[in-house]
Amino acid sequence: MKKQRHLLIGTLLMSVMGTMPALAQKYDVVINNGRVMDPETLYDDIANVGIRDGRIAEISKKPLKGAKTIDASGHIVAPGFIDTHFHWQTPIGYRVGLRDGMTSAIDFEAGCAGSFIAAWYEARAGVTQGNYGCAVSHELARSLVLDGRLSDEIYMRGPIAALEARKKSGWSVTRPNLEQGNAILEELDKGLQAGAPGIGSTVGYMREGVSSREMFEVQKVGARYGRPTGAHTRYTLGNDTTENNGAQELIANAIALGAPAIVLHFNNPGWRLAHETISRLQTQGFNIWGEVYPYAAGSTTVNASFLQPDSWIEQMGNRYEDTVQDPVTGKFYTLETFKADTASNPTKPIVVFKMPAEDTPKWLTLKGVTVASDALGAEPYFGPWDIPLEKIGNMHPRAAGTRGATIRLGREHNIPMMQLISVLSYNAAKHLGDTGLKAMQERGRIQKGMVADIVVFDPKRFTDNSTYSQGAAPSTGMKAVLVNGQVALRDDKVLPVFVGQPIRFEPEAKPRFQPISLEGWNAEFSTGMPDNFTGAFPKDGGK
């Protein structure tokens, strides 16, 4: 009897031990039979992906089992799409982005007010469907110092705070004195100290007020942290000379300071030179990159300085009737209606047609670029995440369709899928990861151990549906979107899953701000310039 009992116990133990490997290999989510594509390693094969605890645990030819299973037969399994120029940082915006495969949204142009970076991130913890990030705003720092402080509630709107701040003009046209300039730079430092991934500058909207010295000092603040400055460059919109002059300012500053930089939406006149400049610098080891979006038209507010008659008509030779459209009515402006809207509603979003439509697929073939949406959004900006999309006001179609448009244009123009996935995901993750941003070092890739931000889409069917008349129409053909290992979208339906993580650096205990002064400059860059220096030589001949 005792021997039988020992045999029975031994049999049970063997049985339990025999099942342990199988139990250990059970995954939270399994994606089976998809074409798995990783832009970093160029892996491209039919395989199964096992996800456990928010990360990719296995990529295998062998069948995998999980608590949830996605059959990806005939679909592509790729890293989640990353948008580094996404202004619509609200529940509706994240939801619209998920329909388009966006798993991470960062704003590297308008940005958030530096003093509110920490609170902005805290407000999104546990209630955001995608990963979220915001650079610290050059524009809002100038607004705060030169036009006066707005309410905390406005600054908590993040990039959308600009719609209120732009109702005044000091932020755009005022040259600050030394004290004001240092206050602007200190506000930027506060945001970086709080973990902002970089600086966002709309210098192209502030070309009258921002001197070349100020722009250099702004990038210097970022350089102290090793973080990039993304800029709507000084002469955008402009011609093929001025556009590149603006890009060259940003790039030259970055090289001199040893800092990263992002040339935002350089898909404007002169784009080939801009891209060649950036590409040549990348081959020399500089962490400088550029972004494009797959649309011939851009979007901005009606009071943008470059759209005013003396610039848009007199200097650049454009006509409002051909180029500037009201997205709500669909009508193009005349000089009279443009002036009327500028006076009555200065921050009204408008659409600007500026480039030939046949150029859009060309931009998607460029080596090393990133695709971003520059999504402005529409009213109600802060409505509930599940608001019916037909109740959203009209907007530029890129907010809802940038990624679907990229895949569609690639399909129509035979652009390799690996290139498309690179520009939609990996390239942004690589450049930002190289700044030390851990959240991007482990995204943008389909590799074992990486965060499971994943898109599963039909390469023949995934497409944009948004148009200039129906800007909020969502993309279709997305089988699944996973954010941090959780299924956030299934068969084009967004699920009530709020697992977005912050894209930021760890906050630092001390600031790195260093005020600028004439004495400090002289000490570093001259051999002892006297205070009474009056010209090329001292008046007394040097005695």
SSE order and pairing:
Layout: H1 2-24, E1 27-38, E2 43-52, E3 55-60, E4 66-71, E5 76-79, E6 81-83, H2 91-99, E7 102-112, H3 117-124, E8 131-137, H4 138-146, H5 152-155, H6 162-165, H7 170-173, H8 178-193, E9 199-201, H9 212-225, E10 229-231, H10 242-257, E11 261-263, H11 271-283, E12 288-292, E13 297-301, H12 309-315, H13 320-323, E14 324-325, H14 335-344, E15 349-353, H15 360-364, E16 370-371, H16 398-412, H17 417-433, H18 438-441, E17 454-457, E18 478-483, E19 486-490, E20 493-494, H19 518-525
Parallel strand pairs: 1-4, 1-5, 6-7, 7-8, 8-9, 9-10, 10-11, 11-12, 12-16
Antiparallel strand pairs: 1-2, 2-3, 5-17, 13-15, 14-15, 17-18, 18-19, 19-20
Helix pairs in contact: 4-8, 8-9, 9-10, 10-11
Note down, in words, how this protein is organized:
The relative contact order is 0.15. This protein is α/β, with parallel strands linked by helices and 543 residues long. It is built from 19 helices and 20 strands. The protein has helices at 2-24, 91-99, 117-124, 138-146, 152-155, 162-165, 170-173, 178-193, 212-225, 242-257, 271-283, 309-315, 320-323, 335-344, 360-364, 398-412, 417-433, 438-441, 518-525, and strands spanning 27-38, 43-52, 55-60, 66-71, 76-79, 81-83, 102-112, 131-137, 199-201, 229-231, 261-263, 288-292, 297-301, 324-325, 349-353, 370-371, 454-457, 478-483, 486-490, 493-494. The protein is globular, with a radius of gyration of 26 Å. The strands form three sheets. Strands 1, 2, 3, 4, 5, 17, 18, 19 and 20 form a nine-stranded mixed β-sheet that branches. Strand 9, helix 9 and strand 10 form a beta-alpha-beta unit.
